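FW: tagging you since you asked about this chain on Friday. Here's the raw sequence from the shared folder, copied in full. Didn't touch anything.
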Amino acid sequence: MLTPAILVLVCFVFAASGYAAEDVGAVVALRGNALIARETKVIEAKLKDGIQLKDTVETSEKARAKMLFIDDSVLTMGERSKVEIREFLFSKDKGGKSIFNLIDGKMRSVVGKSEFEVQTPTAVAAARGTVIDFETGMIEGKFYTKIICYEGVVDIRSVDPAIGGRITLRPGMAVTVVSGQPLPAPTVVPAAPTSAAGSGGAGVGKTAESLPAVQAPPVIQQPPASTSTPVNVGIKLPPGAAAPPPGSIRVGW
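HL: got it, structure written out here
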């Protein structure tokens, strides 16, 4: 339970960032249709909509959604993806911790100023100051999670307590965690062909190898009100980050 002092501090931070007191983030880019499930209600997501603790955001086919949180973390969801904001505590001076539950689909995360954790049906990934891609779903009747690290360090463990051990991913490394199976050794992610990488090698094209640029803008940044065209908040991969191989995760615009 939060103490009164922490509650006051968190509310102050939300207000200073331009968010409603109950909001922990906002939708800053949207293409196609997405839904926000909140308590007993399901609402159609719109640009600038607030995101609250315990919300579940779900994208439809051919849809993309990008959310910016008050700790400067950015989540970019691919189509037919579903994520729950399970835990979020942040103060400007002391930092905090956020936990997201990727239930299905694909997501890129750019970790902000808090301790950061993503839970999936098969894995738990903890990171700080990191750019990570996630993909989770089912293959041959088993749940799987594919994780690719582009920056920083990611510590991964199985959600099954009977499966011990941990994996550490560093830039350019990937792992696929399958339910009921031991944790495998990480693999190296080869660079994408130059023709698909675009200028700067960041992968800005629309091919399967392309990547969205990733960089968390200041919380006070406000996106345009119009939703007629997709809005990109200026995301870039850090210098030297590895691009995924053909056919790998793609959650860009």
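FW: The chain has one domain: 23-201.
HL: agreed, and Residues 1-18, 192-238, 243-247 have pLDDT under 50 and may be disordered.
FW: great, closing this out.
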